[in-house]
Amino acid sequence: MSVAKKEYKRVTVKSLIDMKTNGEKISMLTAYDYTMAKIVDGAGIDVILVGDSASNVMAGHETTLPITLDQMIYHASSVVRAIDRALVVVDLPFGSYQSDPKEALRSAIRIMKESGGHAVKMEGGKEVKESIKRILHAGVPVMGHLGLTPQSIYKFGTYTVRAKEEQEAKKLKEDALMLEKAGCFGIVLEKIPAKLAEEVAKSVSIPVIGIGAGAGVDGQVLVTHDMIGMTHEFNPRFLRRYMNLYEDMTNAFSQYAEDIKRGDFPSDKEQY
Question: Is 90 exceeded by the pLDDT of residue 6?
Answer without folding.
Answer: no
